[in-house]
Amino acid sequence: MAEKLTPSALDALFLEARTHNGWLDKPVDEALLRRVWDLARMGPTSANCSPMRVVFVKSPEAKARLQPALMEGNRAKTMAAPVTAIFGNDSRFYDLLPKLFPHTDARAWFAGPGKETVATTTAFRNGTLQAAYFMLAARALGLDCGPMSGFDNAWVDREFFPDGRVKSNFICNLGYGDPAALFPRSPRLGFEEACSIV
Asked: I want to staple 155 with a disulfide (CB 3.0 to 4.6 A). Which of 69, 88, 106, 146 is the partner?
């Protein structure tokens, strides 16, 4: 049985963690992004399908390519963030299943005529799960996150996934958040409002 996390760990992951809109002028190095990936990739996906792909937008040139795709309200904060992760889903994730799920022919579950819907649904569901794991891993390693969906997916796909195989899901600014730029925390639904036990 896994040990419980400490209260400070729960604070870092959930209770005190916030969605950041302002960023300190402090870089995020590649080694830290690699450590985040190495944690996040361990989260479960169906048949270990692991469809998420990530482009880390860091350079001024890459930020300039991303900027026109952003809704106006997301531009300044994204340009100020040290890194913006573009989370995408590989539509042909199943081509790697012989490596990732080698004990059976899992590729046959998703590849071929009539299986497009199940493949698309599987990629989206599991890629979104992986992006959530990534954000928790980033928080666990001391980074702040600013996820958003206010952007032109088609533009981002043309610029950053030009072969058409990967489709963008959402983006997330990463870095060290400026507490002075935080809004008051919004309410959350209580158990009785959102849950039932049957």
From this structure: 69
